């Protein structure tokens, strides 16, 4: 029975992915030693991503087997650049192990275990930028050096040098908005995206203003006079009459009056 290797990728939003692709088109200056040429499989084109998990499977899997319910878009923050020792670890960006990113990976791995699939996530989390065989010793290190010297990686990523919009001149990270299921059995340029799923938007925090003598929370409203109190809270608010962790019942049946400091 033939086993196929698959990967689950966390992929940036459309504009951020396009900006990263511009940077990934960079090629080092031809100052390599004489009688050395770039090997044929070096610098393949591929989509920017973070690999959440890789696994082998004898049959065609479906992405719903791996995607946990309610998975949300995930912020990714760049931390450093890494030069590796082999082709698939040539040059990558190490991402910060944020709670959101680690939680998404752990939930994916747990979901796969529930579906009786064994997976791994080596060198997590990193974003590969270039794959290359060294045609001479130190070629990967030279590539990293030229990325720094040309202002492309210092440590934000400047994608505008290679054609991305000016607002991508100092990328600190990206928002992971999709998960892709990819067949990675063959060479890099023969990888096949089999399925993709959008992640649910992560709701921003809302500022809630409670003004003196006002019986209700004013959500997203005009700030008006100086607020009596400012609280940061999740965007979700209970319905009228439901229990609230702020003060008893929420709504006109049981209004919340701030304490008078006098």
Structural notes for this entry:
The protein has about 260 residues and is an alpha+beta fold. The chain is built from three helices and ten strands, in the order βαβββαβαβββββ. It has helices spanning about 15-25, 100-115, 140-150, and strands at about 5-10, 50-55, 75-85, 90-95, 125-130, 175-185, 190-200, 205-210, 220, 230-235. β3 (about 75-85) and β4 (about 90-95) form a beta hairpin. The chain starts with a strand and ends in a 29-residue tail after the last strand. Residues about 205-260 have low confidence and may be disordered.
Task: Annotate the secondary structure layout.
Elements: E1 4-12, H1 14-24, E2 50-57, E3 74-83, E4 91-95, H2 99-114, E5 126-130, H3 139-149, E6 173-183, E7 192-198, E8 206-210, E9 218-219, E10 229-233
Antiparallel strand pairs: 1-2, 1-6, 3-4, 3-6, 4-5, 6-7, 8-9, 8-10
Helix and strand content put the structural class at alpha+beta
Radius of gyration over all CA atoms, rounded: 24 Å
Number of helices: 3
According to CATH, the homologous superfamily of the largest domain is: Cyclic phosphodiesterase
Distance between the amino and carboxyl termini = 79 Å
CATH architecture of the largest domain: Alpha-Beta Complex
Task: Say what the CATH topology of the largest domain is.
Answer: Cyclic Phosphodiesterase, Chain: A
Helix content: 10-25%
Shape: globular
List the domain count as a whole number: 2
Task: Report the order of strands and helices.
Answer: EHEEEHEHEEEEE
Model regions low in confidence, pLDDT < 50 over at least 5 residues: 206-258
| CATH top level label of the largest domain | Alpha Beta
Major sheet size, sense and barrel closure: 7 strands, antiparallel
Oligomer: single chain
SS elements, strand count: 10
The overall average pLDDT, rounded, is 79
As a percent range, the share of strand residues is 25-35%
InterPro entries: Cyclic-nucl_3Pdiesterase, Cyclic_Pdiesterase
Organism: Suillus subaureus
GO molecular function: 2',3'-cyclic-nucleotide 3'-phosphodiesterase activity
GO biological process, one term: cyclic nucleotide metabolic process
């Amino acid at each position: 029975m033939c086993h196929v290797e698959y990967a689950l990728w966390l992929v940036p939003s459309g504009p951020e992915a396009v900006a990263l692709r511009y940077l990934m088109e960079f090629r080092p200056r031809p100052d390599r030693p004489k009688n050395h040429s770039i090997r044929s499989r070096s610098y393949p084109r591929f989509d920017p991503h973070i690999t959440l998990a890789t696994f082998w499977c004898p049959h065609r899997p479906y992405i719903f087997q791996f995607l946990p319910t309610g998975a949300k878009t995930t912020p990714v923050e760049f931390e450093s650049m890494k030069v590796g020792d082999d082709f698939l670890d040539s040059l990558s960006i190490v991402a910060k192990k944020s709670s959101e990113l680690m939680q998404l990976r752990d939930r994916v791995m747990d979901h796969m275990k529930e579906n009786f699939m064994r997976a791994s996530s080596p060198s997590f989390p990193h974003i590969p930028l270039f794959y290359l065989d060294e045609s001479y010793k130190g070629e990967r290190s030279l590539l990293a050096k030229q990325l720094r010297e040309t202002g492309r990686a210092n440590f934000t990523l400047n994608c505008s040098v290679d054609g991305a919009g000016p607002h991508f001149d100092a990328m600190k990270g990206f928002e992971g908005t999709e998960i892709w299921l990819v067949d990675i059995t063959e060479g890099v340029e023969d990888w096949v995206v089999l399925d993709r799923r959008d992640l649910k938007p992560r709701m921003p925090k809302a500022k809630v203003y409670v003004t003196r003598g006002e019986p209700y929370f004013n959500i997203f409203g005009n700030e008006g006079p100086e607020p009596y109190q400012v609280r940061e809270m999740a965007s979700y608010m209970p319905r009228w009459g439901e229990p609230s962790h702020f003060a008893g019942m929420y709504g006109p049946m049981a209004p919340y009056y701030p304490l008078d400091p006098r």
